[in-house]
Amino acid sequence: DSHYCAHLEHPTTESGCLERACATWRVGEWTPCSATCGQGVESRAVACMTDSREVDPRECTTTRPEDRRSCLTQCPETKANTFKWRTGAWGDCSEECGGGKRTRVVVCQDVLGEITSVTSLCRDTKPVSTITCNMHPCNHDASWIFSAWSQCNQTCGGGYQHRQVRCQSTRGVPLPDTACPQAQRPPHVQTCHTQPCYHNNYVYKWRAQDWGQCSVTCGHGTQYRSVACQRVNSLGWTDPDPVSPTLCDAATRPQTQRVCHTTSCQAIYSWVPGPWRSCTHTCGKRGKQTRRLFCYHKDGKKVNRKNCPRELRPQRRRKCNRKKCGFTSCKDVQHKMNHRKDREYTMTVAGRNLSIYCYGMNTVAPVEFLTLPTGEWENYAEHYGKSLRNPDMCPYRGQRVDFCPCTTEYASQAGLTRFYKVRLNITSLKIIGNDWTFTRQVSGKPIAYGEAGDCYSRYHCPQGRFSINLTGTGLRVSPHTQWKSHGHYAQKEINKLEEHRKVTGKCGGYCGTCSPEFGLKLDILPP
User: Fold this and answer.
1) Does 69 reside within a domain?
2) Predicted structure pTM score
């Protein structure tokens, strides 16, 4: 009983306590709608928090707020509603009698004037574009007569020939053209000598790469491709190195961008192409590639191809490997013939069969060399090693005299290299001049093929020499190859001989050198 403890201090029966705050749900801001047009999804972050710390969601006792919800964005007026059929004026009748046709232009066009090839955007029935006319019978006593063709006005590149065409009766009486059937009128002009005009065995043509992917996955986008001006020789080989666009006809330059019409952004079905299969041929004119095309529902399920719009179907076939047959590299010889011996092989170079020396055939990366029939005495590169004591003069009228009043101050830069084979990039037809595998080093350091120099004089007096002689190889130095001087007081004298099969040069300065400006480019000899 409590009265027994009345003289004692009574303990408290309750006290305060400090517990952590209850966990609650915290939500972030809704993200923008995933669709810019039509139905999409919004999302937000949802976390169970206590004291600004994320905890196990099970500690939150209330219902978890939603973190995703559907949203609907107002769409602009669809193109399907803005496209309508537009018709042009009827043309003249194709025949004066016997039944002809009149045609007009019919296009699917939007209110802004944009014409589309996707005719399904125009919902109404397409207007007719052709009607019959002048159905009355013709006068069968009239017929066309014509003269012989005139001479072509061009010898190449495409010209024209003309002839007279007249209507006359069976008795030879001239009649107006309207008396003869227009559909049977013989042409009075035709093209002639359409083969291209070759300059130095080459013609310049535009070459376009394949179109890139459309910039959008639905709706109207843009596609791009690269276009370059390239040289094509008379054998059909295209030089892979582009040249100046000014050498090609600007009027025929292919377009580099175009509008691409993909599936509508509201479309239920869309095309998905598979990968391209291997080419049917490795060379020749019959190579083709194909790929499979699939039709998918917007939910990702593959469906029958009939559901996808035919006018938007991607390309299913294309040409491939349209090149002349024959070995194209030492690696090609090694792979196809299982040869492992270093020797001369016949292979197709720039459209013509040439003898190429294959080196390193017992390795995984054999390389090509061009054997020089004229030998090392006609194929050398030199950096002359002597310097005039008075470099402001040019004694002996510029001729080399080895007992000149000279020093050997710069002899460490000198060298004389003779070549009997040169390394060739068989794709670009460029000499790799600093490969000295098949050379004889006469003196000093190795000098690259087609280069020369000296430290002889500040006056115009070059003594360094090089010689290139490709006679017997089937190749020549390209007329486009030019030499450039480098260094101080640099001078050069370049001589191109025997239709560019032979090139010699004298280069020098104080100190000065010369070398092919954009690489030592070769060409196939003209036929």
Assistant:
1) no
2) 0.55
